[in-house]
Amino acid sequence: MGHMARKFFGHIPGQPVGTFYPNRRALADAGVHPPLMQGIHGTAKDGADSIVVSGGYADDEDHGDFVVYTGAGGNDPSTKRQIADQSMSQPNNAGLITSQLAGLPVRLTRGAHPGSAYAPPRGFRYDGLFAVMSHWVDTGRHGFKIVRFRLEQIDGGDPATTASEPSDAQTYATTTVVRRVRDSAQSRFVKGLYAGACQICGVQIPISGGRLYSEGAHIRPLGRPHVGPDHKSNILCLCPNHHAQLDNGGLVIDADLTVRSHPKAGATEVIGKLTVRPGHRIDLANLEYLREHVFPE
Amino acid sequence: MGHMARKFFGHIPGQPVGTFYPNRRALADAGVHPPLMQGIHGTAKDGADSIVVSGGYADDEDHGDFVVYTGAGGNDPSTKRQIADQSMSQPNNAGLITSQLAGLPVRLTRGAHPGSAYAPPRGFRYDGLFAVMSHWVDTGRHGFKIVRFRLEQIDGGDPATTASEPSDAQTYATTTVVRRVRDSAQSRFVKGLYAGACQICGVQIPISGGRLYSEGAHIRPLGRPHVGPDHKSNILCLCPNHHAQLDNGGLVIDADLTVRSHPKAGATEVIGKLTVRPGHRIDLANLEYLREHVFPE
What is the ipTM of this complex? Predict the structure, then answer.
């Protein structure tokens, strides 16, 4: 069954942006969007790796380089009317939320439908990778609760043909920067091992749908010149507060896993001891690199 | 004095990416990089809006679409050797840290120098906007402490001529997404008003250089379809934990400014009352929008 396919995040090899497909069967066979009917390919656990925008929901908005997308459920396919509330725990919707929180890229395919400036004239066209920026719940135009997502193009957009937000242009031009958020399988493993509890303070942060929000923090930073490994021995499950503090020189973690305020950040105090569960070996050389080459005392 | 010029973040009107300048005077007169000698134009309070990469520091690394840049100070301009430690509180270095924390874009100009694959053959060339992704302290090749910055191109790069990180290619391709971080003058005003203390829990997060880390959180989200205003009446100073919780449906803020756990996120409990200082009027209509159209109970 196509919709049971394993998730694969990113471009499908051999299927460049702009490729046309005559129908959903061809789109599924190419691996771009496995299910034949559903608009979202995803589950709460794995995330969603692909969506189709084809005018199936009255509340969808397509702006080219960003899309306001309506979740799955409660929709009568014959009339396109909402006939029931949508839920954030519906598996496809939960998949898009997982992709947002884990920073996973989502393939976006547009299907022909009237009234869209961005849809292909017929069939389906793979239009590249989008990031899920936010999710929320609103009342749709038919009076039922709908789950909505804002997705923004991150790869494959054509600058000549995509729109941006005119009203936000000034704000975007003067204040927008881009921050890379990496959340690999290793990072998700570590977050799962601690059930989203911060390894420094133990806090769990409840968010929509009863989920817990946490972040995978690399001890030795990724990328040049540090080239820390994206491996669980170099990753901690932290709350955003301690992640920001770790990344910006506010913390020292000693070889015995004692966590202290960094003396150059203000008062010196012991915050606690890093919680480490069985199956999670921290590479002490990475902690040493952090102390010696990132924020030395 | 050129280096006392007001900061202006973003492209300079009339100076497109790729513009050449014969010397620093012409570069300064164009407004692209006001100081005639310093490599960084910035202060701790305002941030840094521009840098010049011209081979002045032995530890600089230019990789095209990202740069590992050495901070100011401790350098003998005649020999290009470090002769003293650098400091994160040196105003230009502090300016780049402010730009990182506030998400401000930095203009990058390359000057001709031997051994660089990306520098112009002569004079100076404006090469577009970069984001400061991180800062850290290391021991430079001459044995003194240096402050380093990783900057990544966010606008104006030529995909055909810029490099990316070969060793990270797989990680980047499969797991990287882009998150927009906006931090306007209004947002910085609000953060300053509370001295970085979270309006929900009061926590202050100390980081390098004795700074306090906080985030400006929009109540009614920016961008379509919400189009919340980027105005202080719509902005809260929050710790990253409460910011993540607010943005993802974990909190309700009532009209009397009581902050509660969102019933759909788990246990119902009163967390506290929003701290509001004189001079900061919260627009209650934005709180109502959040309750009614983003994460209704």
Answer: 0.86
